[in-house]
Design a protein that fits this description.
The structure is a single chain. This protein has 185 residues and is α+β, with helices and mostly antiparallel strands. It has a six-stranded antiparallel beta sheet. The protein starts with a helix and ends in a 6-residue tail after the last helix. The N terminus is likely disordered.
């Protein structure tokens, strides 16, 4: 039989988790998300930590009707709020490696995508935000700290890039589930 204090703690955790879930669905999107995604709703949030190092907080913003199983066919935004400094080359290189985990692309294609990401992504400092918007059938558009930073006009790039977080073959399945927590399958 559980002690009364253990039961109260357990009930409190359930209530806190439920309240957090209800609140997350009513958080207001950043202005660049509001301008890019009609009636954006927070799909979920997660924090990426690797070997105890906190990397970034991620937020997924979706339009009504978003279905996670067909994410590449929907307009949505993913925002990364960095918790440490990274060079643009490291961001682009890691992105290519994560994209290749899902599906191998031709080497010249990967090299082209990596060059384009180095042009779009800046070196980041803790506190910087990069926002990517999936443009179905077109590619991806990016903002850094609320300012446009470029786009990559290739739907295959966008599918694999956003698949880093949303694909069933993501290297971070718990993060994927947290980002998709308030979306339809």
């Amino acid at each position: 039989m559980m002690e009364k204090s253990a039961i109260l703690k357990w009930v409190g955790q359930i209530c806190l988790a439920s309240a957090a879930g209800m609140l997350s669905a009513h958080v207001q999107a950043p202005i660049e998300v509001q301008n890019a995604v009609p009636a954006p709703v927070l799909g979920g949030r997660a924090k990426l930590s690797v070997w105890g190092f906190e990397i970034y907080h991620a937020s997924l913003w979706v339009a009504p009707g978003f279905k996670s199983g067909d994410y590449a066919k929907h307009l949505f935004a993913i925002e990364l709020a960095y918790l440490r400094d990274f060079k643009r080359d490291a961001i682009a290189g890691r992105s290519i490696a994560e994209m290749a985990r899902q599906e191998k692309s031709a080497e010249p294609t990967q090299a082209s995508w990596q060059r384009q990401m180095r042009d779009v992504f800046p070196d980041v400092k803790a506190g910087d935000r990069i926002l990517g918007v999936n443009l179905p059938g077109e590619g991806a558009r990016f903002w850094t700290n609320g300012k446009p930073s470029g786009e990559i006009r290739d739907p295959e790039f966008a599918r694999l890039f956003f698949g880093i977080w949303l694909s069933p073959s993501s290297s971070e399945p718990r993060m994927r589930l947290a980002l998709l927590a308030h979306t339809e399958p």
